[in-house]
Amino acid sequence: MRIEYQTQRLSHRFFMLMLVLFAVQVLFGLVVGAQRVEPALLSGTLNFNVARSEHTNLGILWILSGFIGTILYVGPLLSKRELASPWLVKVLFYALIGVVAWNVFTLTLAQRGIAGWWAGQPWLQEGLEYIDAGRAADIVILIGFAILATIVLRTFPARREWNEIHWGLAIGVAALTAVWVFGLFFVERLDGQEYFRWFVVHYWVEGVWEVIHISLIGFLIVLMFGANVRAVGYAVFWGVTLVWLSGLLGNAHHYFWVGTPEFWQFWGSLFSALEPLPLVFCFWHIYLDAHHDRRPLANAPAFYFILGSVVLEQVGAGILGFTMTFALTNAWSHGTWVTPSHAHLALFGTFGMLGLAAAYFAIPAVRGIEKFDQRLGKLGFWLLFLGMLGMSLAFALGGTVQVYEMRILGLDWFGADLRRAMLPYQILVPVFGFVFAVGAIVVVYDLLTLGARAAHPAAAHAATTPAVAHAPVPAARPATGWARQLGGFEAGTWLLAMWIFGAIITLGLLSFNLPTVRSGDSYLPHILAGIGYPGLLAVTLLFVWRFLASLEARSGAGEEGASAASAIAAAHPSGQAQPAAAV
Q1: Where would you tag: which of 308, 346, 519, 572 has the fewest CB atoms within 10 A of its CB?
Q2: pLDDT, tens only, 183-205
Q3: pTM higher than 0.85, yes or no?
């Protein structure tokens, strides 16, 4: 692998920071999971609310670091020139480190009730979920986003030369800066504060981040499979358009129960129900791009995480988000464990996996690694994937019990009866969290030591370059059984099965509105949840396994896989040159 532009090396430090923050965030997650089982654990030293806030904030910070690294890596390839103002990239990196340090230090002050109030603003920390940073850090963050937008827009060519991917990233980095302004003031009334807080959180995650995600996924697919830029640009255009059309008013589903006008319940339910549309579109286009010419996987770990990102986006953000998006279902699910089931799959799956995919794509190229053993990356993916699905299942089933016990029977969260009912699921969360943590260790170790370890001769195939040759690839023997070619009808059937189980979950939440259930009969919602959640996550697991098995079979085995990789390398020894020129 070889990079084309020297400033692409600047992305490396952001990926390294991403890995460190990822590891620390997972550690805090294990602490939070253990504290759910034993609430007195570390009480007075690291209280649950502080550990949970650290876990949440570090998740946002490492995802942002991955976004920045990916943008800096693909920016020169999109623009066909070096990054503008490399010194600003270094300033941005140290500013990000400063924000991380500030975040970790000031959140510990929350345990003692210190927010640093001055001139009516909390300067140290403000205790608002997802945007805990105090006003001093907020200003630094705003400057950092402005720097990123400046670098990207100055690097891009003249606007007449932009394609849809340019426009997607340009809109994304500009909106990233603009939306943050809504988090720069404090409102005394809780409903007003929540109104503007969700401007930041929702428009970031379900608007700006989605736009950046769709654009980056599109370009990585161009580099990996040599997909047609016009076709990918078409998908990016409609993905971005649908995200904004549904997501802007879809923000209203956060206004159901915070004292805002009742009309938000209708509009929030309507437009939130439309938000999965761009996710279905992205899901389907990944299938088309990966199968357009049946090329073998040259960099399997990178594509594993790309596929995981798109599928968990569909399942976590799309389907599980849809199940809670109506006022009649959200009345029961909000503030319960049903919500983190959706949030963990959506946030890590969609955005976290994209950062890890880009790291497997960029780090070998930046370090000039021609071959690396891909087995650790694959193993790490499956451990992370299984761990996250398991945690989501535990949260969802535990949340169903919690809805009934708290909102039907009226038991207190800290009551012995509620704790006893939820304890099996409280134990399952750290169990699957441990599986996830092992996967995180494997991935972080693999990426940090990539190149220091020689490629194992028994590896299925070595990633000689993430770019895709346009020369004929030697055909492998036709695969049969589970590894046979994945057809469009079969892929559509898997997608339909996911949505059928999503509908069952939705009916389960709606059933809490029935008079019989509200009078104490819990069988129907528990049965529907017991079918819907395991069914959805099992289909998700099997589909990803089936998809990847069909792609792995393209490379054949032994000499066939090696000859395919050699043909790719020989056709384009310069790495990314061909896809960059195509753009």
Answers
A1: 519
A2: 888 888 888 888 889 989 998 88
A3: yes
